[in-house]
Write a structure and sequence with these properties.
Blueprint lengths: L4 H17 L3 H8 L3 H9 L7 H10 L4 H21 L4 H10 L2 H5 L3 H5 L45 H37 L30 H12 L12 H14 L9 H9 L9 H11 L4 H12 L6 E3 L5 E3 L4 E2 H7 L3 H4 L2 H15 L6 H7 L8
Antiparallel strand pairs: 1-2, 2-3
Helix pairs in contact: 1-5, 2-3, 4-5, 13-14, 13-17
Length: 394
């Protein structure tokens, strides 16, 4: 199996966290709900978790700090991107295949496989330079030999030394001019070939004005980065109408806005700015303008007419009245929108993440959940904060 640099870095960090926590694979499997074989593959660098939620769950179980979790997210994003570039298979199909194959079947090799020759890599295509234009030689006057320089003059007499020097002067000047012209033609031809087939500093320049696609930004921009590439992502999100600070730091706010942008553009909402997201940031017409907090507050009070103050307090506790608020959970699921509708509740209601980011849909969905028992048991933490004596619904 080919080893990938980014996968090795990611697996090395997982091993460090597990060893620091002094957990066996069996113990870690019990704490995370991830199979022991999968944990072993992730820590050995044999495979990469198909979703960051799995890596996050492992990190939390091993006592990773918030800073370490951000770094783990960045390493997973790089390893995931590297895996997708190297293999045409989707992460889900790869993970499924690995989980169903037995160790014996993976290690066994059939007679036919042993007899078949190894695949021959396709020959590298080398650009063939255009034929060099033939330089037509320019007739150059041949200097007169010294023995013939004493040719007869018009009156039949020999030329004097002064007359001979005067006759040679124009020939020498013509020779110098012809030599200079020939050298210039050859130089221009060579320079044209070099400039056509040799890489120059301008080949890698961002000629289309898209800095995220330059080598300086790498294949992905992700959680934990602090640089000009993050600032470019934030600027592009701001141009799409997102409310976001432009400080060059990829923190939780940027993660939420990137994920929301991916949902709105129909991309995989992984919170990582890879090639598809970069392209969409520059080309997608999607707008991220949404309701202001005051409008959200007023609408919540209208929909929850029986308990307007409590409903506003719950929404404020859940999302700060931000319709595009997205919160990842340690088990890989997420909560969406004003009332932070969970993936499980979203499935029950027949909704989608995109619908959950629509403030009107989200508020109405929360009303349906509240109407079941006419309480806020679906939001136990905020309900306890609202009424400390209240006990969460089992």
């Amino acid at each position: 199996m080919k080893r990938f640099t980014e996968a090795e870095r990611f697996s090395s960090r997982l091993r460090e966290l597990r060893e620091r926590a002094e957990y066996s694979y069996e113990t870690l499997a019990q704490k995370t709900g991830v199979s022991r074989s999968s944990l072993h593959r992730y820590c050995a660098g044999a495979s990469v978790p198909p979703d960051y939620g799995l890596a996050h769950r492992i990190g939390v179980a091993c006592g990773a700090t918030p800073t370490e979790l951000r770094e783990l997210h960045r390493l997973w994003a790089l390893a995931d991107t590297e895996r997708n570039e190297e293999s045409p298979e989707s992460p889900e199909s790869t993970e499924s295949t690995e989980s169903t194959e037995s160790t014996e079947s993976r290690e066994s090799v059939t007679d036919a496989e042993e007899a078949s020759p190894a695949p021959v890599p396709a020959p590298e295509l080398v650009p063939v330079p255009a034929p060099v234009p033939e330089v037509v030689p320019v007739p150059v006057p041949v200097p007169v030999p010294a023995s013939a320089s004493a040719s007869a003059s018009e009156d039949g007499g020999e030329k004097t030394p002064d007359e001979e020097a005067a006759a040679r002067g124009p020939n020498r000047r013509r020779l110098a001019v012809m030599a200079a012209v020939t050298a210039l033609v050859l130089s221009l031809t060579a320079w044209g070939l070099v400039s056509t087939f040799s890489p120059t500093a301008t080949d890698n320049a961002p000629t289309d004005g898209r800095p995220l696609f330059t080598d300086a930004c790498g294949p992905v921009v992700s959680m934990g980065q602090n640089d000009a590439c993050v600032r470019e992502v934030q600027l592009r999100l701001h141009e799409h109408g997102a409310r976001i600070g432009v400080d060059g730091s990829f923190g939780p706010e940027t993660l939420r806005r990137v994920t929301a942008f991916q949902v709105l553009t129909g991309l995989v909402p992984n919170g990582v700015v890879g090639a598809p997201t970069k392209k969409a940031l520059y080309e997608s017409p999607v707008r991220m303008e949404t309701w202001a907090p005051e409008r959200v507050r007023n609408r919540v009070r209208e929909v929850f007419a029986e308990v307007p103050d409590d409903a506003v307090a719950i929404a404020d506790c859940q999302s700060f009245l931000d319709p595009l608020h997205i919160l990842p959970n340690t088990n890989g699921t997420r909560n969406w929108g004003v009332f932070q509708i969970s993936d499980a509740r979203l499935a029950e209601l027949g909704g989608t993440p995109r619908q959950a980011l629509d403030p009107e849909w989200n508020i109405q969905a929360a009303r349906k959940l509240w109407s079941r028992d006419r309480d806020f048991g679906d939001w136990p933490h905020c309900e306890r904060a609202l009424r400390p004596s209240a006990k969460p619904r089992s």
